[in-house]
Design goal:
Blueprint lengths: L11 H12 L5 E3 L16 E5 L7 E9 L4 E6 L8 E5 L4 H5 L7
Antiparallel strand pairs: 1-5, 2-3, 3-4, 4-5
């Protein structure tokens, strides 16, 4: 992901497609124990931070980190579960375009 994303016009259709994929997101596997540095979950380590703000409900933060399973999955963590025991993997195809390109939502 780019360290300093450029300015661009947001494409609402791309945002809607992304949110549609988020509604069907499922954990591929759950991992025991606290997060490890090699999971690279924080943006400073190359992770992707997705913040969802919901009307009338607490927000949700999803951290998507390093690739695993021969790049078929990413390590992930969510703010809705206890912080030291909620590491899981998700299919990489959902997040790859956004981790690779900070302008993925551009028109």
């Amino acid at each position: 992901m780019a360290k300093a994303p450029g300015k661009y016009d947001l494409d609402p259709a791309k945002v809607d497609r992304f949110l549609d994929t988020m509604t069907n997101l499922r954990a591929k596997a759950f991992l025991p124990g606290p997060p490890k540095p090699e999971y690279k979950l924080v943006p400073e380590a190359g992770g992707l931070e997705v913040k969802l703000e919901l009307d009338g409900a607490p927000g949700i933060v999803l951290f998507v980190g390093a690739a695993t399973d021969s790049d078929a999955s990413y390590f992930a963590q969510t703010s809705t579960l206890p912080p030291n025991d909620n590491i899981f993997t998700v299919l990489s195809d959902v997040f790859k375009p956004y981790k690779d390109n900070s302008g993925a939502f551009a028109k």
